[in-house]
Amino acid sequence: MVSSSREVRFLHAMRLLDDGRAQEALQIGNALVSSDDEGDRLSGYLCLGFTYEDGGEGHRPDMERAIHNYRQAALIAPDPVTFCCLARSSMKRSDGDGYQDALRFLQEAAKLRLTPAVALGFAHYHRVKPHRDLEEAKKFYLRAAVSGRFSGFFGYSAVARELSQQGRALVADCIRTVLGPLIALLLGRRAQDRF
Question: Are 53 and 88 in contact (CB under 8 A)?
């Protein structure tokens, strides 16, 4: 019963964030963090991390606070999800160390399990870092696409176009269009996973 209550509160906070109501999401996150239950605290730290990362009405994004909360979540549950959150928010930092930290977090996530979200994280990293490596990004997008993630197909296609590989981009688009309904049927919401 406790876990379903936690899940309901967490999902409510995520809906509030989607609506730009960051202050209300922060209140839910803080309430979860103050619990004696470790699962509640994990959900709370993730909620606070998302809130500080995205911001909302009357609340500006704060990457340092987001990273702090994601670190707390990673201490409770060292999991690819928590390390991906750390990597994503690190790349949004304004200082030059963000990409170096992001790579380290992605490598930690991959040591645990190279999930499609981790592959998308590596792809994004290689695509946007200061000295871009589009061929490496394309490899990771392909890995995510083979796992049935639409973001992998879209990313692969976009990077192939940036590399003037129009034929590869067209093939990726055609495969996504033809297999899209089947992938959605087999994987459901997981097909929409993003970094």
Answer: yes
Residues 25, 56 contacting (CB under 8 angstroms): yes
- What string of DSSP letters covers 55-114? -BTTB---HHHHHHHHHHHHHH---HHHHHHHHHHHHT-SSTTHHHHHHHHHHHHHHH--
Domain count for the chain: 1
Residues with Cβ < 8 Å from 62, sequence gap 6 or more? Answer: 52, 55
Count of other CB atoms within 10 angstroms of residue 181:
9
Backbone angles phi, psi at 97, to 5 degrees: -85, -10
State pTM to two decimals: 0.90
Q: Tell me which residue has tokens 């970094």.
A: 195
Question: What is the amino acid identity at position 35?
Answer: S
Q: Is residue 49 part of a domain?
A: no
d(CA 78, CA 84): 11
153 belongs to a structural domain? yes
- CA dist., res. 91 & res. 56, Å (int): 19
In a domain, 183, yes or no: yes
Over residues 46-54, the mean pLDDT reads 95
Q: How confident is the model over 88-106, as a mean pLDDT? A: 91
Provide the token pair at 65: 């606070």
Using only the alpha carbons of the chain, give its radius of gyration.
Answer: 18
Q: In angstroms, how far is CA 66 from the centroid of its own chain?
A: 13
